[in-house]
UniProtKB/TrEMBL annotation:
<keyword id="KW-0326">Glycosidase</keyword>
<dbReference type="InterPro" id="IPR008928">
    <property type="entry name" value="6-hairpin_glycosidase_sf"/>
</dbReference>
<dbReference type="GO" id="GO:0006487">
    <property type="term" value="P:protein N-linked glycosylation"/>
</dbReference>
<feature type="domain" description="Mannosylglycerate hydrolase MGH1-like glycoside hydrolase">
    <location>
        <begin position="28"/>
        <end position="413"/>
    </location>
</feature>
<dbReference type="Pfam" id="PF22422">
    <property type="entry name" value="MGH1-like_GH"/>
</dbReference>
<keyword id="KW-0378">Hydrolase</keyword>
<dbReference type="InterPro" id="IPR012341">
    <property type="entry name" value="6hp_glycosidase-like_sf"/>
</dbReference>
<dbReference type="GO" id="GO:0009311">
    <property type="term" value="P:oligosaccharide metabolic process"/>
</dbReference>
<protein>
    <recommendedName>
        <fullName>Mannosylglycerate hydrolase MGH1-like glycoside hydrolase domain-containing protein</fullName>
    </recommendedName>
</protein>
<dbReference type="InterPro" id="IPR054491">
    <property type="entry name" value="MGH1-like_GH"/>
</dbReference>
<dbReference type="GO" id="GO:0004573">
    <property type="term" value="F:Glc3Man9GlcNAc2 oligosaccharide glucosidase activity"/>
</dbReference>
<comment type="similarity">
    <text>Belongs to the glycosyl hydrolase 63 family.</text>
</comment>
<dbReference type="InterPro" id="IPR004888">
    <property type="entry name" value="Glycoside_hydrolase_63"/>
</dbReference>
Length: 423
C-alpha cells in the first residue's frame, strides 16, 4: 500500500532540514508558517522532540510586534519568487512581511494532549508548550490589534497569500480592485516547477506583487497596513482557525496554570465566535465572508465557508456543513473539493479553485468529529487515503479523477496521512 506510515515518514525525512522542514524542494525551498505547524503533527510520530523544534524554529522568527511571518528564508535559494530581495522586511533572518492562518495554537494543543500517555513526553510537552504559549498569545494579540483595528470582532487578511488559499474564487472581486500598474517587472518561478494550468494566473500574480510593493512602501508598519490596503477581506475560514487556536491555547494555558493568558484567549475566541455567526448564509447553507474595503458580501461556494466547522459553531450549522460536503460526495469521486463543483468559478485542476487538499480535509474532519458528524468525517478519511493510494503524496488532487496536481513529495500531505493512520 502506498498510503503507509513508512512512505509518509520518507517524505518528511526528505524535506527535513534539521530544525525545520520545507514544503517540497524546488517549488517551496524555505519554511512556511502553517505548513510547519501542521507538519509538526506528523513529525510527532517520529520524534516528539523534533515536532516541538519545528514550531519553535518558526517562532524564533516572530516579529517584535508579534506577527509570525508566512515564510522564513533560512537559506538563499533562487528557485522561488518572491524572495527576500522583493520583500525587504529588514529582519535578521529574512522573512516575508505577511502572515498565515493561525494554526499554531491548535497544533500545540494537539501535541500537548497526545503527549499525556508517556511520562517523558509529558514533561517535555509541558516545558516546551509553556515557552511557546506566550509567543502564540502575542501573535493572537497582534491579530486583534492590527487586523481588527476597529473592534468588529473579526480579523481581515490583507493578501490572498495570508489565507493560504491563494487563488480562491473568494478573492476574485476584491483582487480586481487591486491596481497592477507600476509594478517592477518580475519573473515567476513557481511555473518552472509546477504546471502553469494548476497555478494562479499571471494577472493574479501582478496583483499579489502590487500588494507586496505597496506594503513595502509603507515600511511594513502593521499599524498602517490594514486601513491602507485596497485588499482587506474577512474570511470565515481564517477567523475560525484563529478562534479554534485561541480556544486551544486557552486549554493548554489552563492545564499549565496560566490563568490570565487562558482567560484572554477564551475571551477572544468567544467574541469572534459571536461575530462569526453573522456570516452564516442561509440560502447557501455555509458561512460567507465579506470585503471590508467595500462592505460587499462574498457570494462564493468555496471551502472557506465550510472550514468554520473547526470552531465551536452551533450544532445545526455543523449539520448543514456536513450536508454540503455529503452533497459534493454525490457529485465527485473524492472529497473535499476546495470549491463546489457545481458553482461558478470551479476549476478542477487550478490550485484552490477546485482541487482537494489533505490539510483542509484534516481540519474539516477534525471539526466534523468534534461536532459528532462521524459519518462524513469517516468518508473524508477514506477519501484522503484513497487519493494517496492512487496518486502518491501530491500537493493537491483533482476531485473526480484523483490525479496528482502541483508539487510532488509534499510534506504536509504526508503529515496528514500520518495523522489519519495513527489515531
Ligand atoms: C506561493 O508562493 O505559491 C505560496 O502559496 C505563498 O505562500
Amino acid at each position: 500500500s502506498s498510503a503507509s506510515l513508512e512512505n509518509a515518514f520518507a517524505v518528511l525525512r526528505e524535506n527535513d532540514r534539521g530544525t525545520y522542514t520545507v514544503p517540497t524542494k524546488g517549488l517551496y525551498p524555505f519554511q512556511w508558517n502553517w505548513d510547519s505547524c501542521l507538519t509538526a503533527l506528523g513529525l510527532a510520530a517520529i520524534s516528539q522532540d523534533r515536532a516541538w523544534t519545528e514550531i519553535e524554529t518558526l517562532f524564533e522568527h516572530q516579529w517584535p510586534d508579534g506577527m509570525v511571518p508566512q515564510i522564513v528564508f533560512h537559506v538563499p535559494s533562487d528557485t522561488y519568487f518572491p524572495g527576500p530581495d522583493i520583500w525587504q522586511t529588514n529582519r535578521p533572518t529574512p522573512t516575508s512581511g505577511i502572515t498565515q492562518p493561525a494554526v499554531a495554537g491548535f497544533a500545540v494543543r494537539r501535541l500537548f494532549d497526545r503527549a499525556q500517555d508517556r511520562h517523558t513526553d509529558r514533561a517535555m510537552a509541558e516545558t516546551r508548550s509553556r515557552a511557546l504559549l506566550h509567543k502564540i498569545d502575542a501573535w493572537h494579540a497582534w491579530f486583534y490589534r492590527n487586523r481588527d483595528p476597529h473592534g468588529e470582532g473579526l480579523v481581515a487578511i490583507l493578501h490572498p497569500w495570508e489565507a493560504g488559499r491563494d487563488n480562491s474564487v473568494d478573492w476574485d472581486e476584491a483582487l480586481a480592485q487591486v491596481p497592477t500598474s507600476g509594478i517592477t517587472p518580475y519573473r515567476r518561478r513557481d511555473t518552472d516547477h509546477a504546471n502553469p494550468a494548476h497555478r494562479p494566473t499571471d494577472a493574479q500574480y501582478d496583483a499579489f506583487v502590487w500588494l507586496v510593493e505597496h506594503f513595502r512602501r509603507l515600511g511594513w508598519d502593521n499599524s498602517l497596513l490594514h486601513d491602507a490596503s485596497p485588499f482587506r477581506v474577512v474570511d470565515p475560514a481564517f477567523n475560525a482557525i484563529l478562534i479554534r487556536s485561541c480556544a486551544d491555547l486557552a486549554a493548554v494555558a489552563e492545564a499549565l496554570g496560566e490563568k490570565t493568558l487562558a482567560q484572554r484567549n477564551r475571551a477572544w475566541a468567544q467574541r469572534s465566535l459571536d461575530a462569526l455567526d453573522a456570516l452564516w448564509h442561509v440560502s447557501s447553507q455555509r458561512y460567507q465572508g465579506f470585503n471590508r474595503a467595500t462592505g460587499e458580501r462574498i457570494d462564493s461556494r468555496s471551502i472557506g465557508g465550510l472550514l468554520p466547522i473547526l470552531a465551536a459553531i452551533p450544532p445545526a450549522r455543523a449539520a448543514a456543513i456536513a450536508g454540503q460536503i455529503a452533497a459534493m460526495g454525490e457529485q465527485m469521486h473524492f472529497l473535499v473539493p476546495s470549491h463546489d463543483p457545481g458553482a461558478p468559478g470551479y476549476e478542477a485542476q487550478r490550485y484552490w479553485r477546485g482541487p482537494i487538499w489533505l490539510i483542509t480535509n484534516f481540519l474539516i474532519e477534525n471539526g466534523l468529529r468534534q461536532a459528532g458528524q462521524t459519518e462524513v468525517a469517516d468518508r473524508i478519511v477514506r477519501s484522503s487515503l484513497d487519493l494517496i493510494e492512487k496518486s502518491g503524496f501530491a500537493e493537491y488532487y483533482e476531485p473526480q479523477t484523483g490525479a496528482a496536481l502541483g508539487g510532488g513529495r509534499f510534506t504536509w500531505t504526508a503529515a496528514m496521512v500520518i495523522e489519519f493512520l495513527t489515531r
